[in-house]
Specification:
This protein is an alpha/beta fold. The chain has three domains: 176 residues, PAS domain (Beta-Lactamase, 2-Layer Sandwich); 157 residues, Reverse transcriptase/Diguanylate cyclase domain (Alpha-Beta Plaits, 2-Layer Sandwich), CATH 3.30.70; 237 residues, TIM Barrel. Helices cover 50% and strands 21% of the residues. It is built from 22 helices and 23 strands. An eight-stranded mixed beta barrel has the order 15-16-18-19-20-21-22-23, surrounded by six helices. The longest helix is centred in the first third of the chain and has 56 residues.
C-alpha cells in the first residue's frame, strides 16, 4: 500500500473508532435514560392504581371519609406501605388547604405522619399539579431524605383535585439505574481515552515524521533536495510532464585536495545557489551524490535544448574565489533529455542520463549531451514493466544466424539469438542490448530463458537436420534455478541434446574452475557441446583452454575486426589461436565476418568456421530452410 493511502487509511480508521466511541456513549446514555423512563412508567401505573383504590374505598370523598373512619385510614396506610420497595422511599397523600398549606391524609411510611400534620413541599410543582390536575415528575435535591425523583399524581373527582398522591424514588435506586450500564460506560471512556491518546500520539508522530522527512529529503549542505526525494516526487507527479538534466562537476576531488574540504563545500553550495537563480522557480534540484545533481524542469518552462544549453553555458562560466585572491573555474559535464510519454520508472531515465553523461566524460568532459528523440525510444524497451508485460504475452522469439564452413560456405549450424517484439509494431524486433541487463538476475530473466529454451528445442524437434547453439552466461550456470531449468530441458529432450551447443558467455573471471568443469561435464553427458564465446577479449584467456574441457572456440569479433586495421599483427594472433585450438582438438569459429575480404583472410588462415553478416544476418529460420 502506498504511503499516502496508508496515512489516509489510518486517519479514516481513527475517525471511524471515534465515531463508534461517541455512538457507544450516546447509546449507553440513551439506554440508561430508557431504563429510568421505564421505571417512571411503571410507577405511574402503580400510583394510578393506588389512586383508584383510594377513590373506591372513600367513595370519591377522600377527606370527609378519612375524617370519620380512623380504621380506614389505618388500612389505607398499610396498603400504601406495601408499595414501598427498594426503589420507592415514601408514598403518601396530601390535601391542600385554603391557606395554601399541605397536610397529610395518608402516609405509607413505617412510622406514618399524624393525620392532618403539616407538609412543606420543596417545589412549586406541587401547586402546579394540584391546580392543573396533571401528573408531573419532580427532580429532588433532598440529600437528607436521600430522594431522587418524586411522582406527583393528582386524585381528581369531577375535574377537581381532591388530594395529591406522592411517590418518592430513593436516591440509591436512581444511582443503581445510573450505574446499570457503568461497565459499558467504563469501557467507552477507556476507548475514548485510548483514542485521545492515539490521536495525540499520531499528531506527535506526524510532527516527528515531517521533521525526519524534511531532514531526509533535504540536503543539509546545499538545501537542495536529497536523492530520496526523487522517487517520492515521481510517485506523486506525472513523469511525462518534466525534462530531466544530470549535472556533474568534473574532477572535484582536485579542489578538495588542493584547497581543502571546507572550501570544497563552499563551492558546492555556491554552485547550487547559482543553479537555483538560473533555473525557473518550478525546477527542482536534487543532489544525488557529492557533485552530481539531478534537475527536474517542467516541460511548460520551454524546450529541453534551450533550457539545458542555457544552464550549461552559465554554470561553466561560474567562478569561485579562494582566499579573496584566486579565482577558480570548474568544468562541468551534463546530459539532458525530455522524458518521453508513457515512461513509468524514473530509474530508466536515470540510467539513460548516466550512460549519456559517461559518453560525454569519455570524450573529454566539459560538454553537454542531449539525448534525442530517436534514442528515447529505447527507454521504453528497458522498462521493467514493459519487459514483464512482453514476457506475460510471450512477445519474444529467436532469430537464427548461420555458422558456415569456410571452405564450402555451407551452413553447419545456427546460433539462436533472442529478440523482443515491439508491442505496437510486431515487425519491429528489439535487441537484448536494451532489456537483458535490466532483468539479469531476476525471475523475469528465468522466465525469458525458459521461453528461449522452449523455442530452441521446438526448432530442433521440428528440423532434425539442423544443429543450434544457444548463449548461456557463466553466471547462469552458477544459478541453481537456471541450472535446474537447463537440466530439466536436457532430460526431457535428451535425444535432441546432441544437436545443441551451449555458447558460454562470461562477464567475470572464473574463480572456481573445478565447479565450472563439473557443470560442463554434466552438460556434455547429455551429448551437448560447449563453446567458449568471445575468446581473446575480457576474461577469456589461454588458461581457460588448459583448465576447461570445451569443444569449440569462438574468436572474439574485436580481433576479427583488426584484420582491416592491423592486418599483419591480427593475422599472426589469429593464426596462433587457431593452431593452439587445433592442438587441443577444438573447433574454431571466427565471429563478425562482415566483408568478403575478412572472409577470405579467415579462410586463408585455416579457421574452419565463420559467422557474420557476410554469411548471413540473424533472421527467422524459415529464411534459410527452404
Amino acid at each position: 500500500m502506498r504511503e499516502e493511502y496508508f496515512n489516509k487509511f489510518i486517519i479514516f480508521l481513527l475517525l471511524l473508532l471515534i465515531s463508534f466511541a461517541l455512538f457507544l456513549q450516546l447509546s449507553t446514555q440513551r439506554s440508561t435514560e430508557k431504563l429510568k423512563q421505564e421505571e417512571i412508567r411503571k410507577a405511574k401505573q402503580h400510583v394510578s392504581n393506588i389512586a383508584k383504590l383510594i377513590q373506591l374505598r372513600t367513595q370519591n370523598k377522600i377527606e370527609e371519609t378519612l375524617n370519620q373512619n380512623a380504621q380506614l385510614r389505618t388500612q389505607l396506610n398499610e396498603a400504601l406501605h406495601t408499595f414501598l420497595t427498594q426503589q420507592y422511599q415514601y408514598i403518601f397523600v396530601l390535601k391542600k388547604k385554603k391557606q395554601g398549606r399541605y397536610e397529610f391524609l395518608l402516609d405509607g411510611s413505617e412510622d406514618p405522619e399524624e393525620y392532618h400534620s403539616l407538609f412543606l413541599p420543596h417545589s412549586k410543582q406541587f401547586d402546579t399539579v394540584y391546580k392543573t390536575g396533571k401528573m408531573q415528575v419532580v427532580q429532588q435535591q433532598d440529600e437528607v431524605k436521600n430522594l431522587w425523583l418524586s411522582l406527583l399524581y393528582p386524585i381528581v373527582t369531577n375535574h377537581k383535585t381532591q388530594a395529591l398522591l406522592v411517590l418518592d424514588f430513593s436516591k440509591a435506586y436512581g444511582e443503581k439505574l445510573s450505574h446499570f450500564n457503568s461497565p459499558l460506560m467504563f469501557v467507552t471512556r477507556l476507548m475514548q481515552f485510548f483514542l485521545l491518546f492515539s490521536i495525540l500520539l499520531l499528531v506527535y508522530l506526524a510532527y516527528r515524521y515531517f521533521k525526519a522527512r524534511k531532514a531526509l529529503i533535504k540536503d543539509k549542505l546545499t538545501s537542495a533536495y536529497s536523492k530520496y526525494y526523487l522517487t517520492e516526487l515521481f510517485n506523486k507527479e506525472d513523469l511525462n510532464g518534466y525534462h530531466a538534466v544530470l549535472v556533474d562537476m568534473d574532477e572535484f576531488k582536485e579542489i578538495n585536495k588542493k584547497y581543502g574540504f571546507v572550501f570544497g563545500d563552499k563551492v558546492i553550495v555556491l554552485f547550487v545557489q547559482k543553479m537555483s537563480k538560473v533555473l525557473p522557480d518550478s525546477a527542482k534540484i536534487i543532489r544525488l551524490s557529492g557533485t552530481e545533481f539531478f534537475v527536474c524542469i517542467p516541460k511548460r518552462e520551454g524546450e529541453i535544448d534551450s533550457l539545458a544549453s542555457m544552464l550549461f553555458e552559465t554554470m561553466k562560466k561560474q567562478t569561485y574565489t579562494y582566499d579573496d585572491s584566486e579565482e577558480i573555474t570548474l568544468s562541468i559535464s551534463m546530459s539532458a533529455m525530455s522524458i518521453p510519454e508513457d515512461t513509468i520508472s524514473i530509474h530508466n531515465i536515470q540510467r539513460r542520463l548516466d550512460e549519456k553523461l559517461l559518453e560525454v566524460k569519455s570524450k573529454g568532459k566539459n560538454d553537454l549531451g542531449i539525448i534525442d528523440t530517436k534514442n528515447l525510444e529505447a527507454i521504453r524497451y528497458s522498462n521493467v514493466d514493459y519487459i514483464k508485460e512482453a514476457l506475460e504475452e510471450e512477445r519474444f522469439l529467436c532469430l537464427y544466424q548461420p555458422i558456415c564452413d569456410t571452405q564450402s560456405k555451407e551452413i553447419v549450424k545456427y546460433e539462436a539469438l533472442v529478440r523482443m517484439i515491439d508491442k505496437d509494431d510486431a515487425s519491429k524486433l528489439i535487441s537484448p542490448f536494451h532489456f537483458m541487463d535490466v532483468i539479469k538476475g531476476t525471475s523475469q530473466y528465468i522466465k525469458m530463458s525458459k521461453l528461449v529454451f522452449q523455442y530452441v528445442f521446438e526448432t530442433l524437434e521440428k528440423h532434425p537436420e539442423i544443429k543450434v547453439s544457444v548463449n548461456v552466461d557463466l553466471d547462469d550456470l552458477n544459478n541453481k534455478e537456471m541450472l535446474n531449468l537447463i537440466r530439466e530441458y536436457l532430460k526431457k529432450h535428451h535425444k535432441l541434446a546432441e544437436r545443441l551447443t551451449f555458447e558460454i558467455l562470461e562477464e567475470h573471471e572464473i574463480k572456481d574452475y573445478d565447479k565450472v568443469q563439473d557443470i560442463f561435464k554434466e552438460l556434455k553427458t547429455y551429448g551437448s557441446k560447449i563453446a567458449l564465446d568471445d575468446f581473446g577479449s575480457g576474461f577469456a584467456s589461454y588458461g581457460y583452454l588448459i583448465r576447461l574441457d570445451i569443444d569449440i572456440l569462438k574468436i572474439d569479433g574485436t580481433l576479427i575486426k583488426e584484420l582491416q586495421k592491423n592486418p599483419l599483427r591480427a593475422k599472426e594472433v589469429l593464426r596462433s589461436i587457431n593452431e593452439l585450438a587445433n592442438t587441443f582438438g577444438y573447433e574454431v569459429i571466427a565471429e563478425f565476418v562482415s566483408h568478403e575480404d575478412i572472409y577470405e583472410t579467415v579462410k586463408e588462415l585455416g579457421i574452419a568456421y565463420a559467422q557474420g553478416y557476410y554469411l548471413g544476418e540473424p533472421q527467422l529460420l524459415e529464411k534459410y530452410i527452404v
